[in-house]
Q: What sequence folds into this?
C-alpha cells in the first residue's frame, strides 16, 4: 500500500516566500493548501499544480482560520504541516507610531500566527503527529528603526515558537521558526524601483554578499517540516547569509591589532 502524501497549509501562500514554499513542498510530493487573503491569487497560483488546493484565509478572523484548517483536513484527510508565513509591515518612527498601526501589525503577524497554531495544533495533537514552522525575521534579534511593531511581533513569535515546542513535544508535534535575512521578492524589487530601499548597504552588510532567493528560504522551511528534522524543535534557523553572525564593523575600521578588540 502506497504511503499517503504529506499535507501542509501555507499562510500568505500566494506570493513571495509563501508561494516558493508551496512550490517546494509540492515538488517534494506534498499536497499543499495555498492559503491567502487574496482568494483570486491563491486560486490562480494553485491552478498550476494538481497537488495544490486554494483557500481564502484571513488570519485576523478566527472563523476564517478554523474554516481553512477544516478545509485542509476535509479535502486532504489530515494536516501534517503548517507554515505561518502571512505578515505585514507598517513603517513609522516610534514617537509617531499610532496604536492602530501597532495593533494592525501585531494582529496579523503575531495573533494571526497564534490563531493558526491553535487550530492546526489541535488537529495535529489529535493525530499524534505534525510540524509547524513560523516565519520570523532577522528583525527578531535586532532593532530595526521605523519598524517597531514588526520587530515586536517577530520577537514575540520566537517566544511563542519555543513555548509551543516544549508544550507539544511529548505529543508528537514539533514547532520551529525560520528567520530570513533580506530576500529578493517582488515586493522588495518594487521598493527598490520606487527609490524606497537601497540594496547596496544591505549587500555590503551581508557576508555572503547577496540577497536570498525565496526558494532558498523555502528549502529551509521544507527541511524543518520533514522527517530529516525529526529531532529539531524549539529552534530558530536564521537563513540570513551570515547577517546576524557578522560583527557589523568593517575590518578596515577594526584594524589589525586584535588586542584592541573587546
A:
Amino acid at each position: 500500500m502506497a504511503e499517503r502524501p504529506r499535507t501542509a497549509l501555507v499562510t500568505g501562500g500566494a506570493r513571495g516566500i509563501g508561494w516558493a514554499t508551496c512550490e517546494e513542498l509540492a515538488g517534494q510530493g506534498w499536497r499543499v493548501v495555498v492559503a491567502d487573503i487574496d482568494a483570486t491569487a491563491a486560486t490562480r497560483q494553485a491552478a498550476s499544480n494538481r497537488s495544490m488546493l486554494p483557500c481564502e484565509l484571513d488570519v485576523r478572523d478566527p472563523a476564517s482560520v478554523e474554516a481553512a484548517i477544516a478545509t485542509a483536513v476535509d479535502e486532504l484527510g489530515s494536516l501534517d504541516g503548517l507554515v505561518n508565513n502571512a505578515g505585514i509591515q507598517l513603517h513609522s518612527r516610534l514617537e509617531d507610531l499610532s496604536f492602530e498601526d501597532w495593533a494592525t501589525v501585531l494582529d496579523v503577524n503575531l495573533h494571526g500566527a497564534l490563531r493558526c497554531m491553535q487550530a492546526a495544533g489541535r488537529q495535529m495533537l489529535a493525530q499524534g503527529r505534525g510540524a509547524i514552522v513560523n516565519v520570523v525575521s532577522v528583525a527578531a534579534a535586532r532593532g530595526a528603526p521605523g519598524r517597531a511593531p514588526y520587530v515586536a511581533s517577530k520577537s514575540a513569535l520566537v517566544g511563542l515558537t519555543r513555548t509551543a515546542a516544549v508544550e507539544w513535544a511529548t505529543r508528537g508535534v514539533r514547532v520551529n521558526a525560520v528567520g530570513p535575512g533580506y530576500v529578493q521578492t517582488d515586493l522588495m524589487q518594487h521598493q527598490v524601483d520606487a527609490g524606497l530601499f537601497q540594496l547596496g548597504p544591505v549587500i555590503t552588510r551581508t557576508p555572503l554578499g547577496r540577497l536570498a532567493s525565496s526558494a532558498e528560504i523555502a528549502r529551509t522551511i521544507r527541511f524543518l517540516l520533514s522527517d530529516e528534522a525529526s529531532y529539531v524543535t524549539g529552534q530558530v534557523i536564521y537563513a540570513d547569509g551570515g547577517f546576524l553572525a557578522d560583527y557589523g564593523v568593517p575590518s578596515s575600521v577594526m584594524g589589525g591589532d586584535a588586542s584592541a578588540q573587546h
In short: The two ends are 62 Å apart (CA to CA). The chain has a mean pLDDT of 93.
